[in-house]
Every structure is written in C-alpha cells, then in structure tokens.
Structures
1.
Amino acid sequence: MSPGCDRCYARHQALRLQHFGVAKYSDGFDVRLHYEALAEPLKWNKKRAQRVLVCSMGDLFHEAVPDDFIRRVFDVMHLVSHHAYFVLTKRVERMAALGASLDWGGNVWAGATVEDSAALPRLDLLRAVPASRRFVVFEPLIERIGASWFSLDGIHWVICGGETGRDCRPCDGPVQIRYACLHAKVPFWFTSWGGYQIKRGPALVGQQVHELPAEFVAKVEGT
C-alpha cells in the first residue's frame, strides 16, 4: 500500500514457507484468518509477562480482515491482560475509525509504520486512536525525515531502523529522528542500519541506542 511494502520481509517469508509446505501459508501471502490461533495466548505462561507483536506477518487492519475478527483479537488481549500487545499498522485510517469500538486496555499499544515523509500524516491519525499507549516504527526508513517535520505529542515509544534483505534501500535520517526523540523525551530504539549495517556498523552515532518505555525498564530491573 506504500513504498515501505516494496521489499516486504513478511511476503518473502510467507512465500518461502508456502514452498516448504507449511499449512498456515498454503495461500502464500494472501490474507487468511486463523480463528484456531485466537485462543493461543490463553495457554501461555500466566506468571511470565511478554511483549507481543500482534499479527507480525501481516496487518490486522487490512481491508480483507472483518471487523468482527479484529474485535475478537482485542477480546483475547483483554482477557490475557498481563502481556503487552503491540498492534502495528500502515492502515491507520481504519484503526482510527474502529478505535472507539475496540477495548484499548493499558496493555494494548497502537502503532503506525512511517517509512518516508509521505507517511507522516499517519502520526495524526495515530493520535486519534483512543489508546493510552502509542508507538511509531520508522522502519524501513527509506527517506530522510527531518527532526522538525513532525510532532511526537502523544507518542510513547519510537523504533527506527533500515531495510533488510536483498536489494535493500539505504537507511537515511535515523540521527534526525533520534534528535526529535531527545527533544520530546520519548524513548528511542535503533534496530540497525539494515542491509547497510556491514558498511556502517550496528551503532548509531557511535553507540547502541536501545531505550525502553519506563514500565518495561522497571520490569527488566526488577523494581
């Protein structure tokens, strides 16, 4: 749906799994609804909280996903509320439109992918989602985005990184996004330069930058 999809890792992985006969991917990268998987979080360890990227191989707000299925996913996240769930989409318009009808508990994060300057309007749509916690993923970052070009009001975490895989495009501008996060006092996590990591190294401005929101830092430190 946008230039960030051009070299989608999930599409490549889905077609690979289809080739090897994995049942869940018998339709390749076409949208499939796995109703049988909805109850899986109910079976997880009840004593160990996890951070879960929801629908990591697709987009929960894809136009082919029925509203009822989306609501059922949110029902499960509400039932198993000791985990933190990250719902990431490029289709923020639909997330915002359905937002009021969904159960956004404090454990469900609303997120948007922003890969270039043309995608910056997704930030305003994300702020319209009635979630208590929001995050932005500037990945794959395929165009420079200036620190003054956007606001991080209402955003609680930023993740940034380059494109991976064959024929990856250069990652441009993560330092600018880092500066914007410092100014707004928003935690910033830099994944890597992507396919250009070999040339530039894994660090940003000479150091690893792996900042977590305060609630996750407290859990890691045991406080």
2.
Amino acid sequence: MTHSELVEIGHKYMVKNCSVGFAFKELKSICDEIPDVIGFGSWNHSVLFECKVSRSDFLCDKNKGFRLEPKLGMGKQRFYICPEGLINKEELPQGWGLIWVNEITKKAKCIHSPYRGNIEERELGFIERNKNAEMNLLYSALRRLHLRGRLNEIYESPL
C-alpha cells in the first residue's frame, strides 16, 4: 500500500466518520507540520490523521518537534492510520488513536480511540494544540480560492 493510497482512504474515512464538515489532504501552508489528512468541524473540532506505511517512518515520526511537544501539533483528536498490524495500540503516544486499513479490501477500521462518546466527543482530545497552525492552514485554503476568483461561492446557498 502506498502513502498516497492511505491518504485517500483516510480522507474518505474521516469525512464519513469523524464529525468534520470538510477535510484537506496534504495541504501545505506556512506551518512546519503538513498533515496527511486534517478535518474541521464546528465547535472548535479538528481531527488529524498521520499516515504511516512503514515501521521506520512511524519510529522517526516521534522525533518531530510537534510530536515531542504535543501542544505544537495540529488536531484536537489525532490518529495514526496504517496497514493492519503495522502499529499496535501499546505503541501509541498518549492521547492518540489508531486506524488500520486492510491491504486487500482497502477498508479502514478504528482499532483504538480515546475519544469515544457522542456528547463528549468534541470535548476530549488535545486541549493544548497549535490553533495558529490550524488557522494558517484554513487561511491558506481560503486564500487559494480567492486567488482563483472562487471566493464568492461561499455566499451561495449550500446544496
């Protein structure tokens, strides 16, 4: 399974299952962190998926500055998404969830989530996070629409 395949599967899973109104795939902005998939919902809700296709990539990930200092990272809720069995629940950093993808069916399944519960779902997660980075990412996306002359579309009635 390639990283690009995992990003696509993660994006579809997030939009369908994570209470987000929209999600971005590998959107670059002025931030150090480039989320593989990040989604946003109402009431200050954000979800980050970090896609890993190899053990070495997963092991190197914990040395990134925004992993060493969780308050520098994006996503109120954070998950690793990987092929089945690549990462185990016991290896997760504090507060992270885990999603496995079956390499044959390409179906994603949540193996571990510290965010369970309908009412409290948006209250749980990383209280301290890099909201400035999240806002910069959203600004970057809106700026791209503006530069392409499509910003007026936000004033149209939703479908």
